[in-house]
Amino acid sequence: MGVGEVVAEFGGVYVQSLLSTWLMTIVCFLGGLALGVLITVMRVSPIKPLRVVGDFYVQVFRNIPTISLLVIFVYALPYLGLLLEYRACLIVCIILVVSSFASENFMSGINAIGVGQIEAARSVGLSFVQIVRLIVIPQALRTTVLPMTNLLIATLLTTAMGSQVPLTPPELTGMVNYVNARSVAGISAFVVSAICYAGTALVIGFLGNKLDKKVRIVR
Amino acid sequence: MAASDTAIIQMHHVDKHYGQLHVLQDINLDVHKGEVVVLIGPSGSGKSTLCRTINRLETIDSGEILFEGKPLPQEGKELAAYRAEIGMVFQSFNLFAHKSILDNVTLGPREVLKTPKDVAEKEAMELLERVGVAEQAHKVPAQLSGGQQQRVAIARSLAMHPKAMLFDEPTSALDPEMINEVLEVMVELAREGMTMVVVTHEMNFARRVSNRVVFMADGQIMEEASPDEFFDHPKTDRAKDFLDSIRGH
Ligand SMILES: Nc1ncnc2c1ncn2[C@@H]1O[C@H](COP(=O)(O)OP(=O)(O)OP(=O)(O)O)[C@@H](O)[C@H]1O
Ligand SMILES: [Mg+2]
């Protein structure tokens, strides 16, 4: 089967799987960002135990392959009486990993802020929470658009892990199995998925660059 | 410029170490309301550290610091509220890089004093006018010269209606031609009766506006005198050597 035939026969399911990939990417990325902010706030807080837990969290989830994490979630958690749906397992795993990378990005953004502005903010009478909310997070977000863009693309590609568990509809990589189980498409099924990934990543990269130019902080 | 008898800042037997280094040694210093005190001394003598203990950006090991007769709050809300009453101007300006000049000045009043936006902006524009950077209100800090940024930093402090102001070498990072524009703003403040502690090597400024010069070396206050007395008749050898060195002899 050529690429054209694959599209003709499975186009509808491909669209579904593309949407499924996009949706998972967005959920995992936003979830990862939100959790990443939280972890980062812990890591810069004045309370030592919080910092230790935050650092430990990042070391754990940054340094385990997502696939291992997924295996643990799918096969080990049920023994602990925690039974999650496949899709939920996948999303949680990716969020854990993405949040640890997001936190590393934020930390480098925070380091770029410089202690002087923080001291100025304290001198004006702002509280720790106000400084984090008004100075640290906005600046860290705005200086990390490019690394976060890369992380978003990495998140997109990581959702391919979904091919390792049964999902309905499948995501783009699982879609290859889906097609091959129903006809002899071989490499063509891969090509269609690859084009979808690459197209999405190009758009993300383009928008990320534009956003960076717009919000980047001149220092 | 007339300083009153009421000590607004009092430091009693203050000691501080950085590890082995004894940066502040038995510091005793009173600053009266409306007084301008200039801190001077060689690099590493502890001037910045002393200045920063007054708004507790640095903690102390022992001794006590009182503001308006009350010990400084240790932490939390009380400390933040106390800091809001003390202005601080840094060598490196430290404006908030992501905010416009106007927002730099209104942030404190709006978030800490809960001043309504329109009131805070009106007042901020008046302050920016006063320090001569009103036309720059909608730019971001990186678009301003050092001298302009430092004047904004002063306006940002003034917007909090501080009871006293700390200056840590406010002109040291500036190109020579910009030093005066900042000093003029400070002279004006002193004339209006602001209580000021100023770390600076600007002798003209010290002579024109300060009530007292405090000379530090090796973490100790070596000498305290009126500016004329200190610059014309320094008592200690350390002060003589230091003055020779900054006068380029
Ligand atoms: N955070 C710190 N940790 C360790 N040592 C420090 C720290 N801050 C300052 N010091 C040391 O304490 C001493 C006093 O520093 P301080 O900055 O108060 O001096 P200074 O009189 O302001 O000097 P300068 O004129 O160079 O600004 C110096 O020897 C400095 O190296
Ligand atoms: Mg200093």
Which structural class is indicated by helix and strand composition of chain B? alpha/beta
Shape, per Cα inertia axes of chain B: globular
What is the share of helical residues of chain B? 25-40%
Mean of residue pLDDT values of chain B: 94
Uncertain spans of chain A, ≥5 residues at pLDDT below 50?
none
**CATH homologous group name of chain A:** MetI-like
Provide a count of the helices of chain B.
9
Helix content of chain A: over 70%
Low-confidence stretches of chain B: none
Domain count of chain A, please report it: 1
Number of helices of chain A: 9
| Most extensive chain interface and residues per partner | A-B, 22 and 31 residues
Mean pLDDT of chain A: 92
Approximate shape of chain A: flat
Strand content of chain B: 15-25%
Strand content bin of chain A: under 5%
Largest sheet of chain A: none
Query: Any ligands, ions or cofactors bound here, and which?
Result: adenosine-5'-triphosphate, magnesium ion
CATH topology heading of chain A: MetI-like fold
